[in-house]
Amino acid sequence: MREPDLETLRTIASSYHLTMSDDELAAYQKLINENLLESYDIVDQMVEPELSIKYKRTPGYHPSNAENPLNAWYWKTDVAHAKKGKLAGKKIALKDNISLAGVPMMNGTNILKGFIPQIDATVVTRILDEAGQITGKAVCESLCCDCSSFTSDTGPVLNPYHPAYSAGGSSSGSAVLVALGEVDMAIGCDQTGSIRMPSSWCGIFGLKPSWGLVPFTGIFPVDVTLDHVGPMARTTEDVARLLEVIAGPDGLDPRQYGLKSKPYTDYLTGNTEGMRIGIVDEGFDWPFSEKDVDQTVRKAAESFVTCGAAVDEISIPMHRQGIHLSNIINTEGTAIQMFRGNALGTSWRGYHQTQLLDAFASGMAKKADELSAAAKITILTGQYMQQAYHGRYYAKAHNLALQLKNVYDKAFEDYDVLIMPTVPYKATKLPDRDARLQEQIERSFGVDTNTGVFDVTGHPAMNVPCGFSNGLPIGMMVVGRFGEEETILRAAHAFEKLTGGKYTKPVTQN
Which end of the chain is more exposed for a tag (fewer CB within 10 A), N or C? Predict the structure, then answer.
């Protein structure tokens, strides 16, 4: 272990408001060196356990522009898998913040370029055990800090319906590859809407499960209270099938509190007979909402009557405040856990990827200036608020989130699902390479107005493609009771059958 010098200890003491003389610091330095660092030396020599790797894979390659015209692939590979299982014959892409042993993981940033995980994430092993064919890693936004699709250091991910427009983020590549039909399914991650937003703008189904249903083990986190991982696909059946495989406790993720997988495909009845559906007024008519989006989603929601449901307009006033809770928790949580905590943070039990800690800390020391504008504003704002207000607003936001969860739960006493637009407006144009900072930030934030709140409360929520306007997809968000993904899937499947699946055909590129 490197022993701390007096100047280092003086700086640390000052940061904690300690006034210490040089003699006092020297005394503590001696005590640290003689009594505490020995434990670090001993642990440094011990061999830590690694998660088992069950299947062989090729190192793979980064595809050429000709093979990857929308820049959705980060890495292509070939992974062996079980011969029989629920996912037999299905091609699957992983968001590139998910560890796949022996295959590079960049998480959208040069900070991690060259890092190769030594473990498989739990979701990876579960997919392979059920015969799923993992074909590669999908590009994601820089450290998953953005809602648009122009911040990855491999270049912008282009919308499959119009390459001048954003694909949404941060699971941008995952959504595009599914929309194109290059894979049948993908895994995305969601802290403020990063599964649902790109699913909306790319015209596919994307489900953020209840918080803790799917283990986050082996995935680069943002804030443990917001981290969700879930399925993306062109059909509700594929979403349900993939969720069956990846859901359930793994004994390694502290986010999990007993939720178990269910036979979700059994709930796809094609009807909503007896269901009560609430259209949440506050999810519509934001100052920046587009009328065609609001109208399309309302019409789609009202069509559930045809499938046997009762549909009502309801009001949940506190919904409008939810985005502010999401902003605070995401900003301060990300700054402290991811940036100050070198990707993993502290004070939680589970499997820690020490190689990832080392790689991220080293990359930040050398290349922090290359971070996206959204990542930088997160660091500056989050660290400032922590220093100036000692985490008071992060704590208050979480306390208010308990109240907000209760407000939604109260609505769920009368309604089986709630509906609103996933994103209040259609995909936006990608900014120019030399766009001003203000424009970059504006394009990166605000997309999550309706989605972020359900990361805070933990309720499951799903994007359901419900129409087009000016050639761009529109998404309807269906929200359910905590732990009841099957109800959301049943409603989504009924709508898919009612519309003949016409909104989720694979996009053909000219």
Answer: C
The residue range of the domain holding 160 is 73-498
Burial of 471 (0-12, 13-18, 19+ CB in 10 A): exposed
Rounded to two decimals, what is the model's pTM? 0.97
Please tell me the distance from the alpha carbon of residue 43 to that of residue 475, in angstroms, as a whole number.
51
Give yes or no: residues 36 and 150 share one domain: no
Residue 84 a catalytic site member:
no
194 is known as an active-site residue? yes
Q: Are residues 35 and 91 in the same domain?
A: no
In a shared domain, residues 126 and 18: no
Number of structural domains found in the chain: 2
CA proximity to 230, closest of 172, 179, 187, 184 = 187
- Select which of 174, 194, 200, 444 is catalytic: 194
- Residue 176 domain-assigned (yes or no): yes
pLDDT in tens, 284-341: 999 999 999 999 999 999 999 999 999 999 999 999 999 999 999 999 999 999 999 9
Known catalytic membership, residue 15: no
The residue from 142, 148, 170, 172 that is catalytic is 170
Catalytic residue among 90, 91, 95, 262: 95
In Å, what is the CA distance from 363 to each residue of 88, 109, 113, 138?
Answer: 38, 10, 8, 21
- 452 to each of 143, 445, 447, how far by Cα in Å? 17, 11, 9
Pick the closest to residue 142 from 174, 110, 99 (CA basis).
110
